[in-house]
């Protein structure tokens, strides 16, 4: 029988937590309101924007559509769990280095979705990264920095040296021709 409140042991970021919550609450609500983990953002709460994404058993899940009451025995990971001690995850580092977060509202969801991608595909093509991130909408960026940051983090995770090219950090040098004429020149 469905009761009005539930008390369950949830495994969140490797820690078991005993949590009491109204049984109808979504995982998003329980993470933010009962657990104080406000890194997981709420957007549409309709399954459309992806900004509430967390990992459940290593797979991206829309926490606004998942019932917390069904999460006992599953491994839940939020952005708060990405850092190891004082070490940022490579994705967090490259996002910070490249300015891949603007307002940052979508960033936790994108970081976790990218982590799930790199965990099963250490060297994704740009098309594979775009496909993996397609469910998380960013209201701010043109996605280019996000793609570059994921590419950089993938390289770091593979043990390769990675430093962002100057034009990625600072843009084209002053005086660099732009526009259709410059493209014609570049294309010969
Ligand atoms: S808040 Fe969950 S998909 Fe928009
Ligand atoms: S950085 Fe603002 S929504 Fe993506």
Task: Give structural notes.
This protein has 188 residues and is of the alpha+beta class. The chain has two domains: 5-81, Roll (Ubiquitin-like (UB roll)), CATH 3.10.20.30; 90-167, Orthogonal Bundle (DNA polymerase, domain 1). 35% of the residues lie in helices and 14% in strands. The chain contains seven helices and five strands, in the order E-E-H-E-E-E-H-H-H-H-H-H. It has helices spanning 27-34, 90-98, 107-120, 126-133, 144-157, 166-170, 180-186; strands at 5-12, 15-22, 53-56, 59-62, 75-77. It has a five-stranded mixed sheet, sandwiched between helices. Strand 1 (5-12) and strand 2 (15-22) form a beta hairpin. Helix 2 runs antiparallel to helix 5. The protein starts with a strand and ends with a helix. It binds FE2/S2 (inorganic) cluster (FES) (2 copies). One FE2/S2 (inorganic) cluster binds at residues 42-45, 47-52, 62, 64.
Furnish the topology, listing elements before pairings.
Blueprint lengths: L4 E8 L2 E8 L4 H8 L18 E4 L2 E4 L12 E3 L12 H9 L8 H14 L5 H8 L10 H14 L8 H5 L9 H7 L2
Parallel strand pairs: 1-5
Antiparallel strand pairs: 1-2, 3-4, 3-5
This protein binds FE2/S2 (inorganic) cluster (2 copies).
The site of one FE2/S2 (inorganic) cluster has 11 residues, from loops.
The gross shape turns out to be elongated
* Secondary-structure element string: EEHEEEHHHHHH
Number of helices: 7
* Radius of gyration computed on alpha carbons: 19 Å
CATH homologous superfamily caption of the largest domain: [2Fe-2S]-binding domain
